Amino acid sequence: MSKPNHKERTRAQESTNAIEKLYISMRHLFSRGFYKPMGISGETLRKSLLQLRPEIYGSIAEDKTELNGLVYIIERLPEGIEECQFIYLTADEGYRNSKFKTIVPPKRRRNCYRIDKDQMNIEITRGRSEIYDILTHLTFLFIESHKIKDRVVIDNGEGFIREWVHLEEVVLYNKTLTDEEKDVIVVHLGNILGRTYDEVYDAYNTFATEENPNRFFHLIYWLGKLAINEALLEQKRSVKFSSVLIEEIGHHFYGEIWANNIKKNLLDNNLLERPIHIISANMHSVMNSIYAQNALPKETKKHKGFELFEVLSNANSQPLQKAVKNYASENGLIYLKDTSGTNINVQIIDTDKIDFDTTSYDKVNSVGEKPVIIVMDYAFGEQAFETMDELLKPYKSGNTSTHLDVLSVSIMGKAGILEGGKGDIMIPSSHIFEGTADNYPFKNELAKEDLEDFGVQVFDGAMVSVLGTSLQNKDLLKFFHDSTWNVIGLEMEGAHYQKAIQSASKIRGNVREDIKVRYAYYASDNPLETGATLASGGLGMSGVTPTYAITQKILEQIF
Predict the structure, then answer these.
(1) Three-state secondary structure along 362-379?
(2) Closest C-alpha to 508, from 411, 388, 428, 399
(3) Phi-psi region of 172 (alpha: psi -120 to 50; beta: other; left: phi over 0)
(4) Average model confidence (pLDDT) for the chain?
(5) pLDDT confidence of 480, banded at 50, 70, 90?
């Protein structure tokens, strides 16, 4: 009997295996409560990340330092974390009431606290996905720090290259540099990082702030310094999970508080028993689409179509944005700033207070009804299940239990696209949950044809809900796209939202069984294209058209 030929594993299979190992390892370390990222306990994380080689982390597996990936993760971690030997992940344990300054990363809404010069505490209130996100970023950061250490330590740890000594003098003595002196350090950093002068100079300008123009120098120095301390002085960096966080995670602690606050506000405003439409989106597109024309009559005459929304999206348009918010608050919009810890703000819109005669929307689908729209800001990964599951539950007040009459749930978000480019639109027909056998087909009330006349490309097909956008590589994504899965894009929340909607409507009877769902995403990046990953920068004004096109179609179907 002939033996079957041994078949080599493809890169896609290796990548799938690496992702599975990463998540098993992270859940194990979380249960354990403590680990050293560059020690034996963190070895599986490091090896899996290096095997996976995610696109967003660029040259992580090479000797040279990955600068675009560094920019991406530093924007999502608290300022100063590179200086800290000890990192604590905690629940909301009252630090906001302390004298510690709250540090919020520019691209992630999470509260962080610098406890002392060696310790950073990061509050986790958005579920396991946030833990995975932070741990993968930290693993990348520490791998890069050891690259720096390997390039600057000489003579078996007895000395350092002269470029490092010059950098240390600049950072420790906080020297003010002339342009010529700055150029010298940039050249030195090029040797330390294995990068060109232009690449280092671009990174320097990206990290520079008014308060600290030399922030990039400080960042590289402290990354290298702590790696040196680990290698030469046995001062190992560590990550610890608080016992309160370990007890709370997975129990919807914050989601329940968040959802009950929304329902109480509905009750207080006599809106609880009205028909409800839920929209997961940003905090501006629905409000602007309904109210901007009436709030800004002069600007509306000057700017036709989506031009008005482009003006409102400009960072210099704060007075106009405030005018729209004030008008909206006087005409049916209630703004609920989050106090639960979910970091998900909410708008409640009483459509009975909207003057439809002066808007671009006609009441066709809601004639005779006075629907309420609940707009919730973006959830993060698994947090989507927690918040939607709690929001769709009946509201209990005393001995009474009130089921919400939810007619529809609409999800609009950013996603990576596997065909097309930034600003294009994806209409999913199903969500596939990466790393599991779970898949969620559904009837999407939005169709490709609805969004084809806005000047952007539109694609329909399956979407994969990934365990982390920062863990994807081309081989795995190419497999999803080219195989019979026919995946058009990737995001982090779709499967979690649909799981909550299906269980609430089909199994638990919390909401009507014929609840309508709408999903549409606009492309923030194409991870299959070199230079087009999330690390390459944001959408800018190219995001206005798809955002407002999707919003318009959702509102047309509601009204």
Answers:
(1) CCCCCCCCCCEEEEECCC
(2) 388
(3) alpha
(4) 91
(5) confident
